[in-house]
Design goal:
Blueprint (H helix, E strand, L loop, with lengths): L2 H10 L5 H15 L5 E4 L13 E4 L2 E4 L5 E4 L2 E6 L2 E6 L7 H6 L7 E2 L3 E4 L7 H12 L10
Antiparallel strand pairs: 1-2, 2-5, 3-4, 5-6, 6-8, 7-8
């Protein structure tokens, strides 16, 4: 199945209203960056064991690891979780950046080093969430991981 097909199936598999909210976020990201690379990670490791929630990814960057290795990975990720939705901003060097830059206006959400997690879209400031996504997709941000 194609990546867009996997994404559509994943969104369709979610209970409502979570499915509709994931679809709205998917459309928002595609509206911001229509030509970004799409990713779908099913949450399973090489042996087929579930190790995380499935993720939809957007964009591309090279993430460098402390052991000297690097790999291509997405910039923005969306994932349903047991209590709501997570928006991931990957490759940030400063683990306080999201909270410092967006935490005071994001609304009812928890903001960690690379994740904004909320129960429903109604709980968050839509403009602030869009700003988080735009920030994460920036190609030349000096605050992103090198690559």
């Amino acid at each position: 199945m194609s990546v867009p097909g996997q994404i559509a199936a994943y969104i369709a598999s979610q209970p409502e209203p979570k499915g509709a909210e994931l679809q709205a976020l998917h459309e928002l990201v595609l509206g911001i960056a229509p030509d970004s690379k799409l990713w779908f990670l099913d949450g399973k490791d090489a042996s087929g064991k579930v190790v995380s929630n499935p993720n939809i990814g957007y964009g591309s960057q090279t993430i460098d690891y402390a052991n000297g290795k690097s790999r291509e990975f997405y910039k923005i990720g969306l994932s349903a979780n047991t209590t709501g939705i997570s928006v991931y901003v990957m490759g940030l060097k400063d683990k306080n950046l999201l909270a410092n830059r967006f935490g005071d206006r994001i609304g009812k959400a928890s903001v960690s080093g690379y994740c904004v997690k909320f129960r429903t879209l109604q709980d968050v400031n839509a403009e602030a969430l869009e700003d988080v996504i735009r920030f994460g997709l920036e190609d030349s941000s000096p605050l992103m991981g090198e690559g």
